[in-house]
UniProtKB/TrEMBL annotation:
Quaternary structure (record): The methyltransferase is composed of M and S polypeptides.
Protein name (database record): Type I restriction modification DNA specificity domain protein
Gene3D superfamilies attached to this UniProt entry: DNA methylase specificity domains
Pfam families: Methylase_S
């Protein structure tokens, strides 16, 4: 029995080591992705600088229409700065702040009465624990609020398809993308909401993977306020440095990441 227990302990230890290796490999893949080293560049791709100008034009129109406010800090294109990760980007990439491509960056709202406001059914109400990472939502432990609260007091945090969600309290930096089939949804104040100016000009999965890269995660953790519950401000999110490739390359990067991640997940599942 002692030998059997020792063997079981060894198996569990090796499982843990494998899990760590898989997560480290995923992190390395994301690091290569945001540096332009995961897939080949195509000189025929429309440069990201042209893409950004189209986004800026759309954002300016939204400002003129009074739908959004102008950014307090105007975004500029920059390379290098103080971070070596951005010094050797491909020539048709740019480095921008997340706010430059976002229509809004806001956060959810706590319903009046807190937990008392939760219902057995109604409008799904997301908390940080529902943000599962990368592009995934975990809807298995979902709370609900009534439709009146959703449309009135909580209207600022009504979610839309392809919104990118980021946890900003507790466990920081987990992400998810809002799928159409999960709507209608709302969220609490521990979740930041990033809504892009135009989802057709930015691949939302590329952006979600970028936000999970080691350099972004490290930067966010460095900026977090160390209270009883660690938290990030919306300014911290808005000022994230994003390496932006051409749109066609964004798609190629996402396809490569998902293929590699699927293989790694298969390996992990086989040893469970």
């Amino acid at each position: 029995i002692e030998k059997l227990m020792l063997s079981i302990d060894n198996i569990e230890s090796h499982k843990n080591i494998l899990a760590i290796c898989i997560e480290n490999t995923k992190a390395k893949i994301l690091e290569l992705a945001i540096r332009g080293k995961l897939v080949p560049q195509d000189p025929n791709d429309e440069p990201a600088s042209v893409l950004l100008e189209r986004i800026r034009a759309e954002k300016e129109e939204l400002i003129k229409q009074g739908k959004i406010k102008r950014d307090k800090k105007e975004s500029v294109i920059f390379k290098g700065d103080d971070n070596s990760y951005y010094q050797d980007l491909p020539s048709n990439w740019i480095n921008i702040r997340l706010s430059a491509i976002s229509e809004i960056i806001t956060k959810g709202t706590t319903p009046r009465g807190g937990k008392i406001a939760y219902r057995q059914s109604g409008i799904g109400f997301l908390r940080a624990e529902n943000i599962a990472g990368y592009d995934k939502l975990d809807l298995s432990n979902l709370n609900y609020v009534d439709e009146e609260s959703h449309k009135n007091y909580l209207k600022r945090s009504i979610l839309k398809e392809n919104d990118i969600l980021i946890t900003i309290a507790g466990t920081l930096g987990r992400t998810a993308i809002v799928p159409q089939h999960a709507l209608p949804l709302n969220s609490n104040q521990a979740v930041a909401i990033v809504r892009l100016v135009n989802n057709k000009l930015i691949n939302v999965k590329y952006l979600a993977y970028t936000l999970n890269s080691p350099i972004i995660k490290s930067d966010l953790l460095a900026k977090s306020v160390d209270m009883a519950i660690p938290n990030l401000s919306l300014d911290n999110i808005a000022e994230c440095n994003i390496s932006l490739p051409p749109l066609a390359e964004q798609k190629r990067i996402v396809e490569a990441i998902e293929k590699i991640f699927a293989t790694l997940d298969d390996i992990a599942n086989q040893v469970e």
